[in-house]
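Dear Dr. K.,

Following up on our conversation at the group meeting, I've run the structure prediction for SGNH/GDSL hydrolase family protein from Pedobacter ginsengiterrae. I'm pasting the input sequence below exactly as I used it, so you can double-check it against your construct before we proceed with anything downstream. Let me know if the numbering doesn't match what you have in your notebook.
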Amino acid sequence: MKKFYILFFIILFISCKKEIKLPRSFKNILILGNSITIHVPDASIGWYGNWGMAATSKDKDYVHVLEKLTRASIQPVNISGWENSPLTFDLSILDKHLLNNPDLVLIRLGENIRDPKNLYPSLEALLNKIKTSSPASKIMITGTFWLNTHVTAILEDFANQNGLMFVPLSHLARNENISFIGDLIKGEDGLIHSVTNQEVADHPGDAGMQKIAEAIALKIEELNLKSF
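The predicted structure tokens came back this morning:
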């Protein structure tokens, strides 16, 4: 019965979100992500934004869309280095971000993991760091956007084993949700740049960013309802 009411209010939120404002406990959200979350300008790959690659403008990336959907203040942090070297990554880098005691920490990682053999213990270390530095924070975790069945399975199992809300995303990785060579992006410099690098083009475009934000917002709303 409890699950029925939670589902009812979530559906009501999605269908009538302009008319209804449910109570929200998450005002400050920290997102630990990779280039899909935020990437500084890098002319060597033809990227001139300072937001989620490859949204066509700052307000189109999933972080800023999510801010609008949740009415929360969101801090995006790129820790893609953790994906490349999870066992040796210096987690003290997170201290300055966790000092603010975010209401919610979203672990939005996984796309750059090539060898998942050390993923589970690395996730445990990351989770312990968050819990130790910001014990009041709720924690959520997503799957990968790019299809990676093995990594996503580990991420989902880890979430389940630790009682964390899990957000699947791989079903969104369809052509209409991905950028492309020739897409036009307004850079930090105010100029319009064409996507010329396949590395950039493989990232979610505006449609993909919108759907990522909506998928996360839905789970945030579900977690929020459980807290009342």
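Two things stood out to me. The chain has one domain: 2-226. Confidence is low (pLDDT under 50) at residues 4-8, 16-22.

Best regards,
J.T.
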